[in-house]
């Protein structure tokens, strides 16, 4: 039995009798392999309509989905309603990506003479990998779970999805899959293009299964690394795209602290406690100047944190990990508690906001590791060179944030050069929590932020994870994929022909 638990009380509200057996997994993966063929036959326009129909189905079931997710996560109907809107938007975005067609990188080199001699007719594009396994996140039951970005981008690529139901919101996962299936059927799709499995053992077996051709994962470093190693140890290794979280440093330059330190302090308090600190982009450390301006920023942070209440955390495991990480930080040499928020209730799983200061001379151990939850560590620097040296102590991350004014530009330029080597997104005079779904977004970073820094898990280009290139040499036009034919029938798309990029040919 899989319990559906209310984190506000810690009580089981329902149970799912759904543990996935070996026989179940064989049936599900066989159905996913069969669905690959139907997705291919749909063409880009058919898959676009399927995605939009899935979005409409989520919308029809909005009230039920939000209510169930609220009961399982404690995130509240306002936050969850906005997340469901984002999730529908992701499905619509990938329908647009399909209709645009540029993601295929369609390229044609006609036969002809070249300085190296005769060249055959060569045509290249990206093609689907096949069935994909998706492991969603506890903190986003819609946008990064069964109906989320990994699923939307994989389906757009033409890859069926087998999703692992998350223990923190199992019923939400099941109802989301049912809504997606209803939307697919309304678009005329008969195959099981999205299926779900349950249980830790089935999760490992899914990654090992020969029908699975790639994995998308959002979660902890420990579990992600375990599954990453499983994917790499297969007789035929497969890509594992894991988003594992990070410390996400914030640098506040001197002039910025002087001119708007109080505002930055208040903004940092709101950012690191947003969603009870349960965002993968939560800032975990802030470097501020050791000066009266830095003191004012710190005081603003302290005042803001002391006014904040405890919040409900997503699961008992998340709460316990936060509690353990907080204790390790508190007990680390050179770490001082600056402020704490209000306490939680006796029942349920609560996290109290915590602001710490660490001695710049002793940055090691837990100070350099992510603590998932509402905690921020302040580190004070002396000179600009000290700031850069401190930044170098913190490893790769999803984001790096710089607060700087015009007078800070020389040191800010040096910070930006360092960040470009170590993060996936640089934030200027803002806060990293919140990841826009767009064509230009990159949500990733060098290991251990992710297992593959070449790709993003958010935005239009996340579709690239589920595709591989193939070239056709001297293949008759009638036998080519439509997008590579001399006159494609499925609509115009960007193509590079004989070295020239043609937006419509």
TrEMBL record:
Top-rank taxon, per record: Bacteria
Family matches, as Pfam families: Aldedh
CDD domains, A to Z: ALDH_KGSADH (cd07129)
Residue ranges of the region described as Disordered: 1-20
GO MF annotation list: oxidoreductase activity, acting on the aldehyde or oxo group of donors, NAD or NADP as acceptor
Keyword terms: Oxidoreductase
Keyword Oxidoreductase found: yes
Record InterPro entries: Ald_DH/histidinol_DH, Ald_DH_C, Ald_DH_N, Aldehyde_DH_dom, Aldehyde_DH_Superfamily, ALDH_KGSADH
SUPFAM superfamilies assigned: ALDH-like
Positions of the Aldehyde dehydrogenase domain: 2-445
Annotated protein name in UniProt: NADP-dependent aldehyde dehydrogenase
The organism of origin for this protein: Nakamurella panacisegetis
